[in-house]
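User: Fold this one for me? It's Phosphatase PAP2 family protein.
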Amino acid sequence: MELDIAHMRITIWLMIATLFSVIVFAAFPFIDLKVSALFFMGEAGSWVAGGPVFEFWRNVVRRSGEAIAAIAFLIFVGNLMLGQQQKTGWRVWAYLWLSTLSCAGVLVNGILKSNLGRARPNGVLEFGGQQLFTPPFQLSDQCSSNCSFSSGEVALVASVVLPLCVLIWPQLSRSGRIFASGLAIAAVVATAMMRIAAGRHFLSDTTMSMLFAALISVFLYRALAIGSHRHVFTAAPILADVSNILAHASRYVVKTSRIVLDRTRWAALRTRVLALRDYARFSSQGRSGATVE
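Assistant: Here's what I get for Phosphatase PAP2 family protein.
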């Protein structure tokens, strides 16, 4: 019951924070321009974090988040195949990859960025671009695809680190929880600041992505009953599941390879037999023709 109350409180506070953010950014859209102006260096395309080093780290962060989600999905599928042999179960892994898919994949990149049409900071007139600035939460025609609202990278990082923190939380000491919380906050905030400083997103883009990821995380926490299953998310069960999955996968690969090899040999043998038969038939026809002559 204590976990349910804690979950309810977190959900309520997240909803309040989301509503407050929507009201503030909608009522005072100039906040986005003021914050982005702090990182604009005065010339079109010139931003504090616009260099190749920041782009490299952006790609590292993005690929790392995608890799974690992909690994979680593969273990999820593997655990479904293991059945009763699985140690961690499928729910904790579904929690990880579904959070990423739902937030970063479907909501942010699939719906918002593809339809709202908000131009990025480095594309608006105020910062040397050619598009008009659009306040958040408004439909616009200033961008056709991969638009500014909301931030895909922030959504990706937040939808990975938040579920991870939720899963390992029961196993952490007080100091461990403080460290994990600080690390998660630092990862999300650093990603947000990097995208704002590169002129690729406004403050509202990154803030709303954080809140979207948190809301989806708490929803899936309840939907998948993670509170009753996250206690198994420890090193030993995880390693046991990975080992079993790899063992089953290797046996499957060997079995499949043998089947493919056998079929290849059979096809080659059949082709050879047919070729010999055709050769014999043509030879017979040739001899018959010579006899007639």
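One thing worth pointing out: The mean pLDDT is 90.
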